[in-house]
Design a protein that fits this description.
The chain is built from 7 helices and 5 strands; from the N terminus they run βαβαβααβαβαα. It has helices at residues 10-22, 39-56, 68-75, 82-100, 118-132, 145-154, 166-173; strands at 2-6, 26-31, 60-62, 105-108, 135-136. Helix content is 52%, strand content 11%.
């Protein structure tokens, strides 16, 4: 299959990319992460995704859009639902890009993280895929958690300390 892989960051993409290539899929990366804050963190993750793509010879579509205002407008009223917004907004952009680019399916590196809500991601991915006319490819990449960490360290990729949004930064550091 020709797959478009949404990449939240370079380290989280390594193991899914490896598994997808081993299965014979033709993979292109897609970076769109308007939820990552502050800007310096966004830039570090964007640059790490570019570095990873170069090291892995991965074609990468870069949607370089830092939209603090849009993110806050959509989640400030109910921060507890922010993850659903983040999943849906990024997967919608990925699915639209996949459909327009003639991809067979799309998937997300979020499925590598043991901290993400897999069933919600799967449900939203399938719904968004149906809405956009492109298949959502689900695979649980969590068994490769430690291998992905090892690979990212070997490649010298920037490794973030929180999920990405300003709320997750607060949860990580303001204890």
């Amino acid at each position: 299959m020709k797959l478009l892989l949404h990449i939240c960051c370079g380290p989280c993409a390594l193991f899914p990319l490896k598994k997808l290539r081993e299965a014979g899929h033709e993979v292109t990366g897609f970076f769109y992460n308007h939820n990552i804050h502050p800007y310096q963190e966004y830039a570090k993750r964007r640059d790490a995704a570019l570095q990873m793509a170069e090291q892995q010879q991965l074609p990468l579509v870069l949607h370089d859009d830092y939209d603090l205002e849009g993110f806050l407008a959509n989640v400030a009223g109910d921060p507890a639902t922010r993850c659903s917004y983040c999943y849906a907004s990024r997967m919608t952009a990925t699915a639209k890009t996949a459909a327009a680019g003639g991809f067979d399916a799309f998937t997300v590196s979020l499925l590598y993280s043991r901290y993400q809500k897999h069933e919600e991601i799967r449900r939203l991915g399938e719904q968004i895929g149906a809405d956009q006319g492109v298949t959502f490819y689900y695979e649980d990449f969590r068994p490769g958690w430690q291998e992905g960490i090892k690979l990212s360290r070997e490649q010298g990729l920037y490794r973030q300390q929180y999920c990405g949004c300003i709320y997750s930064e607060k949860e990580r550091y303001a204890k």
